[in-house]
Design goal:
The structure is a homodimer of 356-residue chains. Chain A is mainly alpha-helical. Helices cover 37% and strands 2% of the residues of chain A.
Chain lengths: 356, 356
């Protein structure tokens, strides 16, 4: 009896081993498609990093006084301790108004081809100016941002140090540059998948290796490749079959709004899959709360495949191997307001007046 | 001409020296009234600290999923990098609704006699349950909080480690205890004033010493004494003369609501003056934005004195010496939600249902 049981166990182990992909071959295939997150951030065009600029950018990233109500900062919707987003379907901004799209993660965003779901900002510097001025997000204005920062002596000093060649260091353009410089440092290296790519056979479980093989074999890698497993190309949501309006709301035509080209209807930037287990809910609509369900929907809509539960399960296990080391962030102590600092404004966006 | 100028400068220096109070005497007077912020937090009745509990409390302090909308945490209104409050008149909470009173600072709050402006919570543990359930603040419920925490394996483990004697470690009571345990560690020691108390003559400028002398001599110390220079007694706002309704709204009768005693109308807990330069706007109404103006109003309403601009100026300089070392906080990395975690709820407060 016990011998029979042992035999069965050994047989099932043998089967598991037989089913597992050849690890070296798998790694070679993967290395041709994906790259690990580097330890050091890449250079930024026209925005060289220096320590003073990065530190200033960090302060501004956490600075709620950049918003009209003085309660919303970049970190409100892109929380650095929660996978770089906020876990909401779409984020409540000024007066709890909600935008149409899910907040994308800021982590590793520097590697994306462009920013926003529709790619309308060419880089992080361009992106940073958007939410600040959006009446349903931070509801401020360039003039108000500059007046706020100018009113606080420590910020004047820090802008002068960070932008020492500028005649007018405190500006909206430099605010965006400093924030982008900081954001570009927010990387999550050493994910199990990256350790596997680097040669560590044991960094992935057998199940995760099978998931990786499925991820490549089923065609997911067609859009989700490169260092971010995504973020580097645009695709229609529904290559094969459009998902229902609950997942793909028909009034958001995506990149069409940017290019006005009919072929860009319902086209979106393919999101990065880095740290995807931390960034529910999923898709630009934020309508799908389970990673398993998201994988199944992708199979149907993009690949025309009805993935089995076991296949989905393995791919989810693989996706969990994309969670890297999260940034360890010490909160910057922010300097106090002065009598010249504009008061919070809860009325119209960016009215440029001292509120209250 | 130059010699005459030099003479004038020397004479004015001599006058400054003559006007300065005797430093040793000043210190002795101050030490009889005030105490420095200690390096170590005091013990909590019925809630002994341990490292696991404090770390858990820190995570919960920064945990927006404790709120109905999953966007508001303790730190939203009590920002540890902004003097322990949020710089708003009153804080926008769930759906940007605003309460009637200014958010008090959490820093050094453990030394206060009681919590809230009206003292209705006896300690930090009691306080922590309030905003979580308030429909215009975090808009959650004990049941929802527990269900959220139970759904996340890392929280289950951390509660078990922090409350190892409990049969049911994940509870609303323990959530409050853990948050309070963390909050009790948020001290700001080594303010210039504390270094002066400890014997450092140069920790205060001559102007700050004059301000301290005025602070004691004019009677401010009658209410603002002890380790927190306040926080340890209740007083009517308007001992001598009630300020106008703009500063003291007549519909908020303060501690009267707690005790129902007529003598408690417009009585409030005297706020701590620790880090007061970081916590504008001022008073329970949050209606006064300038510290100078706040000091002048106190002179009139509480002391019946019309303080000169020079006196106000010196006292403000003294108050700035109460800014201690701010806590250096590394953001806790929060564990991801699971399929069992309630979704954000934007409807009624604490409905206990999975939202959305």
């Amino acid at each position: 009896m016990r011998r029979a049981l042992l035999g069965a166990v050994l047989m099932s182990l043998a089967l598991t081993v037989a089913a597992a992909p050849d690890t070296d071959q798998l790694r070679q295939q993967a290395k041709a498609l994906f790259e690990p997150i580097p330890e050091e951030p890449p250079k930024l065009d026209g925005n060289p990093r220096n320590p003073a600029k990065v530190e200033l950018g960090k302060m501004l990233y956490f600075e709620p006084r950049l918003s009209g109500s003085q309660t919303i900062s970049c970190n409100s919707c892109h929380r650095l301790n929660m996978g770089g987003d906020d876990g909401n379907e779409t984020s409540p901004g000024h007066q709890f108004q909600k935008g149409p799209r899910n907040s994308p993660t800021v982590l590793n965003a520097v590697f994306n081809t462009a920013q926003f779901w529709d790619g309308r900002a060419e880089d992080l510097t361009d992106q940073a100016g958007g939410p600040l001025q959006n009446p349903i997000e931070m509801a401020s204005s360039p003039e108000r941002v500059v007046r706020t920062l100018e009113s606080i002596p420590e910020y004047r000093q820090r802008f002068a140090a960070a932008f020492s060649d500028d005649d007018e260091p405190v500006s909206f353009a430099n605010t965006r540059k400093a924030i982008a410089a900081y954001e570009s440092t927010l990387l999550t290296p050493n994910a199990p998948f990256d350790r596997f790519l680097a040669g560590d056979d044991d960094a992935l479980s057998a199940k995760q290796k099978e998931g990786l093989q499925l991820f490549m074999g089923k065609g997911c890698r067609g859009c989700h490749s490169g260092v971010n497993l995504g973020g580097n190309n645009y695709q229609p949501f529904g290559v094969v079959e459009k998902p229902g309006a609950e997942v793909l709301p028909r009034d958001d035509k995506g990149r069409f709004k940017v290019t006005k080209s009919a072929s860009d209807e319902y086209v979106f930037k393919v999101p990065s899959l880095r740290n995807v287990e931390l960034t529910r809910p999923y898709f630009h609509s934020g309508k799908v709360w389970s990673l398993s369900q998201a994988v199944a929907i992708m199979g149907e809509s993009q690949l025309g495949q009805d993935l089995s539960d076991a296949e989905v399960d393995k791919m989810v296990a693989f996706l969990e191997s994309l969670t890297g080391e999260q940034p360890q962030v010490t909160l910057p102590t922010l300097p106090p307001s002065t009598d010249d600092t504009p008061h919070p404004s809860f009325g119209d966006a960016g009215d440029g007046k001292v509120g209250h």
